[in-house]
Amino acid sequence: MTTPPPGETLAGPNNSLVEARRLALMGQIAAGASHELNNLLGKIIGLAELTLDEVADRPEACAELETLISVAEQGARVVGRLEACSGRNIAEPRRFDLAALVEAACVAAEARRPDLAIVRANPAGPVWVLADDSLLRVALDAVLDNASRWGASRVTVSCRALPDIAGDRQAEVVVQDDGTGMAAEVLARAFEPFFTTRSSQGAAGVGLSLAQAALSESGGRIEIDSSPGAGTMVRLTLPKSL
Questions:
Q1: HSE-up of residue 209 (Cα within 13 Å, Cβ side)
Q2: What strands lie across the sheet with 117-121, from one edge to the other?
Q3: Given 48, 115, 120, 207, which is the most exposed site by the fewest CB atoms within 10 A?
Q4: Cα–Cα distance for residue pair 173/156, rounded to 1 Å
């Protein structure tokens, strides 16, 4: 089979123009959806804050509302960056402890998926990186949820600072599951905005595409290795911070 030139496919040279228009339209849709969803999340945050004052004498209720506010605020930040689908810069890098973020994502995944065994292989101390923590959390949540939905019963999550090589300072997170794995055609579209094999379950298909855009802008990358019957390994690499 003949390999088409870069930017073209065997379907013809106009295919790249069609793809550009499709992505531009998706960007417009994402911007509109972002506005509407941010309005809804703003109302949730506002009502939760008002209710927080009314239950100030009930510690458990306060803790639940504070968690709700925190998650809604994180959602608002992520939704506001759906412009990634139109090719705009969306990452807001900052210095944070990667090991702490990975542990928080694991704890949240265990609460959502009690049947999933998550084995940690993380360092005792912090791993300081420079990236967008909100979008990285979206990526980890998506990866861990995908593992459970694709039949995994056990997931190993490791986080470490890589050795400095020729001035290249990086850290990585590796998530390995024992699930059913992905077929080649699914793997090829894993980072495509709004692509999902679980639309009937309410999946939006934006987590990995947002993460790929954010990691790329932060000088990092995300890679997936998967095949049917062999599980899936996801590797996220980020720049280390002093």
A1: 25
A2: 117-121, 154-161, 170-177, 232-239, 221-226
A3: 115
A4: 10
Note the pLDDT tens digit of each residue in 60-108: 888 888 888 888 887 776 666 555 554 555 567 889 999 999 998 898 8
CB 152 within 8 A of CB 231: yes
Please give the DSSP secondary-structure letter assigned to residue 122. -
Cβ atoms 49, 66 nearer than 8 A: no
Tokens linked to 110: 């265990």
Describe the crossing of helices 133-149 and 207-217 by its angle, rounded to 10 degrees: 140
Identify the sign of the CA torsion 196, 202, 204, 208.
negative
What are 129-152's pLDDT values in tens digits? 988 887 788 778 878 887 877 778
69-104 burial: b if 16+ Cβ within 10 Å, else e: beebebbbbbbbbbbbbbeeebbbbeebbbbebbee
Question: Pairing relation of β-strands 117-121 and 154-161?
Answer: parallel
- Structure token digits, residue 41: 């999340």
Give the whole-angstrom CA distance, residue 116 versus residue 38.
Answer: 31
Q: Is 223 helix (H, G, I), strand (E, B) or coil?
A: strand
Q: What is the H or E stretch that residue 33 is in?
A: helix 15-54
87 and 38 Cβ atoms separated by less than 8 Å: no
